[in-house]
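Message: I would value a second opinion on how I read folds in token form. Give me a protein, with the fold worked out from its sequence. Write it directly below this note and I will take it from there.
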Amino acid sequence: MTLHKKPPFRAKGLTLLEFSIALTLVVVVVGAAVSQWSNDKQQATDMIAQLQLARTGMLRFNMDYPCSTRALSALVKREDVEHGACGDSNDLQVWKGPYIELTNQLINNQDLNVSSVYPESRLTLREATVGNVHYQAIILEGSASSNLRAAILAQCGEDCMPIPGSEDLGILVSQTQTVATESSDLVAQAAQPRPTWIPLPPPPPSPVSPPVP
């Protein structure tokens, strides 16, 4: 008769080795997440700094040259100024640039290259009119990840969404109130005859009562 020995009793749960392996995996995953979050936060800080530097240069440019420019390259290249936009044939002489220190190359000869902060990223100048307000803003374009966008918004909030109704990240340079007037209304008002004012006759004099004796 063969006797079968019962297997040794094993308590339910993890052994010390299994617990150590699980704990190591958790530490690695958490460490990688914290490292990525720290990297995104630093990239967001650096990108906001680039936006602020570009805005400072644009504000200085607008003081010397108040007319619109279509490219940020005008901050560092005199020939990229919109010649004659202000109606002055000598407007290029008021250019006192460069208005920013160009540490990176230009992209398409008009945008600022900020790929040193995040790959394939650039800053571009954008203007838009929403309602009766005209906005001038510096916009971040390129392959910014969702994590970087979230990190930027966490630091500067709605200030980094300068154009209402747009999801583009950037920074506001200026906003001006515009007065929209329909030319047809002006023509119609000019065509209407002006009323002719006819003076009314003076009122009759009040009757004078005779003196009482």
Observations:
- Confidence is low (pLDDT under 50) at residues 183-201.
- The radius of gyration is 36 Å.
- The first strand starts at residue 106 and ends at 107.
